[in-house]
Structure formats: structure tokens, C-alpha cells
Amino acid sequence: xxxxxxxxxxxxxxxxxxxxxxxxxxxxxxxxxxxxxxxxxxxxxxxxxxxxxxxxxxxxxxxxxxxxxxxxxxxxxxxxxxxxxxxxxxxxxxxxxxxxxxxxxxxxxxxxxxxxxxxxxxxxxxxxxxxxxxxxxxxxxxxxxxxxxxxxxxxxxxxxxxxxxxxxxxxxxxxxxxxxxxxxxxxxxxxxxxxxxxxxxxxxxxxxxxxxxxxxxxxxxxxxxxxxxxxxxxxxxxxxxxxxxxxxxxxxxxxxxxxxxxxxxxxxxxxxxxxxxxxxxxxxxxxxxxxxxxxxxxxxxxxxxxxxxxxxxxxxxxxxxxxxxxxxxxxxxxxxxxxxxxxxxxxxxxxxxxxxxxxxxxxxxxxxx
Length: 369
Hints:
Blueprint: H1 12-29, H2 32-41, H3 49-69, H4 73-97, H5 135-155, H6 171-177, H7 182-213, H8 218-228, H9 233-260, H10 268-286, H11 301-312, H12 314-336, H13 338-343, H14 347-352, H15 354-358
Helix pairs in contact: 1-7, 1-10, 3-4, 3-9, 9-12, 10-12
């Protein structure tokens, strides 16, 4: 007689557990790439505030729906964690951009001659000013007072950060953002994805080993399935509200990328982990093995149980699968705008900067390293 095998049995339950564990691992780290990207750039201009706010509202309804529907305590804890991570990312955006709830994208325009800018000298000479002694000093003092008044009023607003975010066209920021090549970025992202997925599989293996020791009887499994198939009206209402908010959260980010004609400042790992998390979550729901009342299922009994199970989880399937499709649109924007982001200069910047057109000007041009 051969000894009993203790290997991994990849049945439907195991497939559901693996997908669920990978989904949890992705959602645990989903905000980390974007938070690190904002810290690295010292700016959160590429991220839509409305995207984060609507996503935060969806996570709040997710908590309410999970509690009322009676899901596992682990899922409730994760929903609370997602909400806290949303708050951290939102606070970071407020820190860099000031307290505002709108996504404003203003194209740089040529400043009038009477308003000083960062590039205008403190002392300006005109063709008629050389013959008037003291006119340079008078103009310099007037411009300096005007600069102080405008700048002070600008920064006294609570909706304006004290320090201006560095522009991507500035040499220090440009050197920082282009410190890695495309191959290095691809290898790093691939390594991060593999490690997160491996952590999810390892988490499932640990839980399966502990669950094997405390194996449930058929009656306990039947009772747990009845709790899973219990239909809560308010739980379903909050679940569908959560799905609608999740679907609507991607639209502000897509529109902001379209207005900017760029995805610079947005971490692609942020949306890759979100896509993998949503995909594996949907697969974990579909990979479900119904448990019949008797040992042998009656005709149509397993199908009826499975259909009710899908109906109970329909709102979460809609939210995850719908956002997955919208994330594909964001990936398309990454592909469309990749050349412009690589050059680091928007079309309107090239039109307004004469040094980029003629190559004139002291020293190096703005795109030169």
C-alpha cells in the first residue's frame, strides 16, 4: 500500500483560493507605487483628485456592503485597509497641490510684460530709459513690490501649497525622472509583479496547510454555504453603489490624461496591480464549487446554487470587471502618449519657448542634459 499523498491538490477550491490570495496581495500594495512616484517627483500633478475621492467613496460603501452582506472578517479588514490607503494618497495630493477638489490643467501662456516672472530680470532697460537717471531703480523697486504683493496674496490662500511643485521641464527634475532606462523600468515592474503574485500563492499555501489540519465536516461546509448565499437587501444596495462609484472613478483620470495629452506622474504599476487584483478577484468568485444538500446532487441543484451564488456577488463582479475594462483604456493612453512623455516636452511648451525652436539662448537648451 502506498502512503497517502500530501501534495497540492489543484481543484476548483484551490484555484479560487489562489486567485483570491493573489488578489489580496495586489490590493495590499496597489497604492505603494503611486505614493512612491509622488514622493520621487515631489508632485502629484499627474493624478486626478476626483479619481481618488470617488474611489474613496466606493471603498466606504464597500465596507458597509461587506458588513451587511456578512462576508468573511478578513475581507472587512481589507476593505478598511483600502480606505485608509485611499486617505493616505489623498492627503499626499493635498500636501503637494493644496486643498482643492478640482483637477485644473492650465496650459502655460506667455506672461504680459508688466507682470514679472521667474525668468524676468529685476532691472529692465528700455530704449528711452537710458537718459533718465534712477529709472532702473524705480522700475526695479516697483516690480519687486508688485511681485511681493501678488506672490504673498497667492500663497496666503489655503488652497495653494506654500512651495510650488517642480516642473518636469526643470533640469533637476528632468535628470531625476530620466535616471532609469526603459529596459530597467520593464525589468523592475516585471520583478515587482512576480514577487507580489508569488507572495499571494505562498499565502494561499500557508492557509491551505493550516486549513487541512482543521478540516470542516460536510455539515459545517453546508452551513457556511448557506451563510454565503444569504441575500441581504442593504448589503446589495451598498454593493451596487460601490460598483457604480468604482466605475465612475476611472473617468476623471482618463479625462485628465486626455486634457494633458500625457500620463506623466501616473505610476503604471498602480494600474497594473489594480488590473491583476480585479481579474483574480473575479476569477476567485467564478471558481466556486456548489455543495448539495445530499451527497449526490439532484438534477439542476448544483446549477441553482451556483446561479444564486453569482447573483449574490453580482455587484462585486460588476465593479471589478467594469473597472478592469476602464483600466485598459488608461493603458491605451500610456501607449498613445508614451513618445511625448519620453521627450518630456508638451506641444504647447515647444511653441512658447523660443529657445527650443531656434536653438538660441545662452548655455544649454531646456531638454539638454
